[in-house]
Write a structure and sequence with these properties.
Radius of gyration: 21 Å
Bound molecules: tryptophan
Strand order of the largest sheet: 1-2-3
Length: 342
Amino acid sequence: MKPTHRPTLFSGAQPTGQLTLGNYLGAMRTWVRMQESHDCLFCVVDLHALTVRQDPRQLQENIFELTALYLACGIDPAKSTIFLQSHVSAHAELAWLLATFTQMGELERMTQFKDKAQQHKHNINAGLFTYPILMAADILLYRTQQVPVGEDQKQHLELARDIAIRFNGLYGPLFQVPEPLISTDGVARVKDLQNPTKKMSKSAEADLAKVMLLDTPEMVLKKFKKAVTDTLGVIRYDEGAQPGVSNLLNIWCAATGHSRAEALEQFSHHQYGRLKVETAEAVNALLEPIRNRFHALNADREGLRAVLEEGAERARHRANAVLGQILDALGLPTMRQRFSGL
Ligand code: TRP
């Protein structure tokens, strides 16, 4: 692998609870594919998770589980850099520096902050407010060219771009201005099974609303059987009139690799029950190898630690080189001991 010839891609997920089928089909599966064409960094953003109060033991467990899930889904440490945000101190350091280039008004406009402040009224901490600055630091530290983002993170990426442009305007072209990478594989966003006009979210309260990657086959079947549809009684693709049925068709297509036309050919003369069961079966076929690999990987904590340490080593080297240049540009004398030879 020659990272320098490939565009750099950065993405991250918070170690807060398990991933859903929506996370897999909408994000992780694309990450796995991107490893072939991009110089990828995949980060477990544990510092971001601290913006909401966490139980330390549970957090540590979630960090290892998310790492094992990355690997189980096909993220390969021989191709990509997989690491923990807190292992590379340059993230927190650059976040401080970038905070001085970010306006209060810009942060106040962030819709995710407004939503989270509503949800966590008793703990609207400053970290929740400056969260997008840390995310900008994650991205800019690696001169990232492309960031795969879902709808909910677009505004944060836009802010990272604005910060980079502002900094470059003052000190020269030190940061790469990152671009969003919009998924092109045509997989529509997976919707909540109980409320199919909303996206499937890992924070949804109802268990039946979301399929988790580690659900047992029986749980997956049960959730699809109970999925909300409608009373029209025909299988058609119409997101407006039949969001539940359309969601099932989309999931079946994404899980099997078939087109929408093929899905309609297969199901249009059948009843909803058949579509539900076959979608559950397709999802189980997709998830079974991931679940199996996950359980073996997750049991080997020493192996996971080794992967993370090796990833941190690589990430640290790259991040410190960029951080050194930024400190220099700002007029802060850097310590040779730390930044030499980079
Ligand atoms: N904020 C992102 C989320 O909650 C996670 C994240 C942190 C991230 N840093 C990132 C995503 C950098 C992409 C790039 O989904």
